Amino acid sequence: MGRLLFAVCVVCAWDAAHLLGGGMLFPRDSPTREVKELNGLWSFRADFSPGRNAGFQQAWFSGPLRESGPVIDMPVPASYNDITQDARLRDFVGWVWYEKEVWIAVRWLRDGNTRIMLRVGSAHYYSVVWVNGEKVGQHEGGHLPFEADIGAVARKRNGTSCRITIAVNNTLDFHTLPPGRVEYLNHPKRYPSGYFVQSTHFDFFNYAGIHRSVLLYTTPKVYIDDITVVTNFSDSTGLLSYQVSVVGSTRPSVRVSLVDQDEKCVASSAGSSGLLKIVNINLWWPYLMHEKPGYLYTLEVQVTAEAGNSFLEDMYSLPVGVRTVQVTSTQFLINNKPFYFHGVNKHEDSDIRGKGLDWPLIVKDFNLLKWLGANSFRTSHYPYAEEVLQMCDRHGIVVIGESPGVGIKDVQSFENASLAHHLVVMEELVRRDKNHPSVVMWSVANEPAAEMPPAGPYIKTLVAHTKLLDWTRPVTFITNSNFAMDHGVPYVDVVCLNSYFSWYQDQGHLEVISLQLNEQFEDWHGKYQKPIIQSEYGADAVPGLHNDPPLMFTEEYQKAMLESYHSTFDQKRKKYLVGELVWNFADFMTGQSIMRVAGNKKGIFTRQRQPKAGAYVIRERYWRIANETGVMPEGL
Ligand code: GCB
């Protein structure tokens, strides 16, 4: 990282123990909890000072941001990059400042038994948060939530509004996830003084800002901090083991009940951990595997406790699905039945919003997934919004949950500092997503440089740690390298391969695909006897560009390439291939380079979600597979 930016980040060294001390339940309303969204327009100012540290030197958090200099309107959630006409802001590297004045309800402030929490769904990459000029928290990592108890600070100014300031820095260094590097170009005749650029080894635009919702929510002082469920079944009886952690009381009384979709209580228990038995279980099934995919129960948790002279109560309702996941040497089983991933890789990416959460886009994407007949996707290359996973749970879309470990190519990014942070990120990811039935596998990284000597031990540690955190799901990492055969792959449960035959190699030679793909599969399965997922394959297609016979970058080429892969998939599907995920669902923005024409065009949909010829190929195929092996949902 560059000298000046680095100086600022050191000030913010993150206290992992503090953050992982508790749970990270999604904020939900309940009779004992309230949620208030702080989305909308915030004041915004990028720190264009040469060292990007004027905001800290001048303490922009200590008063209203507009008093520090000019501010503009900035929507939250959204990336800030594409909101204005200013290329300097689009390509900005360093600290930006967000601020919002909010009212906190008097009843929240007056009730000393109420915790007032400020929660940020995600902000990329490094955040520091102040309330009324007092620092309340900080967080490293651009894709997972963080929160701070702001009750004490807010209560100091009872009755006046609260000023929330969030500074966000998108600088990436060797030890961030994803990693990056700031390069200073010291050539006075060629570059202005102090000129620097951020470089990375990943293929998507480093969008930044507050990407997900900012919320205030309350809980009682004695509160349900975390819930963990693990499910199983035997014949028609479902088994749900639960564990509830309560903070604020040493002797809370905990009651749980499981309610079905007819609002009938089907099982209940007392105690902070236990096992619920559900007769005539409605299992959670993937889309196109059952008439009623995505069946969810609600686990209602109720806690009561005495605290001083008061009697406190907390309630939290968690949607849960009962299902199992297992892996054999040739199969991926959900509820003991073979599951074949026919799905996509995605990005959180769209016009104007960048990586900002956007409900119309989310719902459109789910409609397109269903139109395609897709039953799954991988959250390439970072954890997606919880709201997306909730949709997956409800619709039965199966998810491979990926960490932001992408572009780990430099030897320094395998150092202990990187590994330590990567392990913490896996903890944060598993803590957030462990209860989603849709999430069936963890991917710890995408295409790390497997040929480098430290890669093997690094991946081994990551995989082992993730299995310790969650023994109920298989763990993998995604590779495009034969070196991974010896370094890393021995530890994973499922082999996930990315390959671009006739694209990055043998350019234009579609005729080599079937031979090379066949060799790839036979080599890997021969060596490891593990099920394989083709986790990426695809070709760029500039929408509307045509040539027959196919030429690279035309819609015809993308279509022909997909079809060539498919014939080999069909042979291996009968043996050990358990999935195919096309790269990519939609076109997406990348950094500028001669390799990319205003972004990566490997989408089968355009960035505006219109189908290219390739989308119809995938649609026909996925519905054919579903008709051969699947069960249509009711009403389809
Ligand atoms: C890959 C990467 C992905 C790229 C893709 C491509 O192997 O995992 O991030 O976008 O190839 O299009 O080059």
UniProtKB/TrEMBL annotation:
GO cellular component terms given for this protein: extracellular space; lysosome
Enzyme class, first EC level, given as a word: hydrolase
Superkingdom, natural source: Eukaryota
Pfam families on file: Glyco_hydro_2, Glyco_hydro_2_C, Glyco_hydro_2_N
Keywords: Glycoprotein, Glycosidase, Hydrolase, Lysosome, Signal
Activity regulation behaviour: Inhibited by L-aspartic acid.
Protein known as: Beta-glucuronidase
